[in-house]
What we know:
Blueprint: H1 31-58, H2 66-72, H3 89-102, H4 104-124, H5 127-138, E1 144-147, E2 163-167, E3 170-181, E4 188-194, E5 200-206, E6 214-218, E7 230-241, H6 252-287, E8 289-290, E9 293-294, H7 299-327, H8 333-357, H9 369-381, H10 386-398
Amino acid sequence: MPESDRGMPEGADLGLARGTDFLHLDELLTPQERELRDGVRRWCDEAVVPAAQEWWEAARYPAEMLPGYAATRVAGASIEGYGCAGVSALADGVMCAELARGDGSIATFNAVHSGLAMTSVHLLGSEEQRQRWLPGMARVETVGAVALTEPTHGSDVVSMETRARRDGDHWVLDGAKRWIGNGSVADLVVVWARDDDGDVGGFVVEAPQELDGWDAQVIDGKISNRGVWQAHIRLDGVRVPADHRLAEARTFADTNRVLARSRQAVAWEAIGHAIAAYEGALTYALRREQFGRPLAKNQLVQDDLARMVTLITSMQLMCTRMSQLQDQGRCTIEHAAMAKLHTTTAAREVVATARDMLGGNGILLDHHVARHFADLEATYTYEGSRTVQSLLVGRAVTGTSAFR
């Protein structure tokens, strides 16, 4: 018997962990949505997971994965029309979780391309702008990014300094952006800036890498999501046609409409990381023999596994209700904030427990848990840190803002 299989109980089925659907929430999806979800899962299992270790360790952007990603139809999945799948917000979220279960870098690419860039165009663009840009983005022929965060404005991005001034039939952009996912490889970047009237707008920059005044440098030295590239971007007189300003992007409240949607996707991502870590820990506990018996036979290990799957189930329940509210047009930025606050915090406990359960093997990429342990740190912070989400919820329950 191979060493890796020693201690496996007779008849044990590792597939029981897959999906971690303890309360049968899968039944809420339509047959078509389950088919799409299963397609994402299959692609991740067959193409992403076997290769993720290599690009994570090398900090390499896996451009060769784009055709497979496009084929899953997860890009813009909940958008109706424009070549998108048009599924429910719940199905979209479950698909995002499956991507994260496969690899955090792929999930983050999707969060940027679909959750931020496509959502910006869909929510805030005119019908002509949607028709112009969304179909190519749905086919992933056009890779999208959103440039919002600045070097000195992260959580207080409302204080953004990037400026857009009108010059004839163009807007001219000046400033700097940081931590811009896909920023060095994108074909289309929505740059957020203040105009001369102080209004905040989203300006679509096409083929940015070819433009004068655009400089995007990849940020290296990361310990999370090493297979997706974030960029530090400098804009020095970048010229954008006047009709590239998103028609409905006029205030920071419009920006928040995008963030409310993208934070929902990030909340689901945390579930995917937690499920992957739980699956890895359960598999290891069933196979790993210590003191003459599998780890899974020990009470303390079963207590940890029970705690992990309970946390995952609570995360799924919260995100499911959040997505139902989204489909009803009732999900607010505070709902999304609470979901991200809970899922990223709970997932942090799950992946830490899984890493500990694997002992010394828990720090090796070979077992995948270490990768999710590291990648979740980015999920925990981006799209608003835990404390920012907490203050959004606090504002909702007290009626008083603690931001200023």
